[in-house]
Design a protein that fits this description.
Blueprint: H1 3-11, E1 16-19, E2 25-26, E3 51-53, E4 60-67, E5 70-77, E6 83-97, E7 100-113, E8 119-132, E9 144-145
Parallel strand pairs: 2-8, 6-9
Antiparallel strand pairs: 1-3, 4-5, 6-7, 7-8
């Protein structure tokens, strides 16, 4: 199961994440389209879990299906929610601490009014500070800060 896709779907909805365990380390450099780092989740049977709750006034249906090797996810509801959601990453950079490098950023969930486009709320999702576990030479030099 691709829990990262499930977590991203929940973050882009009014559902509330109640248990979340992020990946603790930066395991590989970015490839292709970049999504905010560490917005994925870890699950380990009988040890850690991923949970969310529907605090809205309507039923929702979570649909997951595979086409070939691609996992698709969709959240359905009886009527459109009046808000839109977007993840933004701020202050993304790498920093050396002692002999190690860390990937640092803050990831926020922006909640906007669907009709006006006005930002209603900005919620901190993750204050990221993850040890880089790959070859330091692959860190883009322009993203390293002292």
């Amino acid at each position: 199961m691709n829990y990262s896709k499930l977590h991203l779907l929940i973050l882009h909805s009014p559902l509330e994440t109640t248990e979340f365990h992020n990946h603790s380390d930066a395991l590989a450099p970015d490839e292709g389209k970049r999504i905010p780092f560490s917005s994925g989740t870890s699950v380990s049977y009988n040890y850690i879990d991923y949970r969310f709750r529907n605090n809205t006034d309507q039923d929702v249906q979570l649909c997951l299906w595979c086409e070939g090797e691609t996992l698709h996810a969709e959240l359905r509801s009886g009527r459109e929610f009046p808000w839109c959601y977007k993840l933004v990453e701020e202050n993304h950079h790498f920093a050396k601490e002692g002999n190690k490098y860390y990937r640092i950023s803050k990831i926020y969930k922006l909640i906007t009014d669907r009709l006006t486009g006005n930002i209603l709320d900005k919620v901190l999702v993750l204050d990221n500070h993850s040890e880089v576990m790959y070859d330091y030479s692959l860190i883009p030099e322009n993203q390293i800060r002292e």
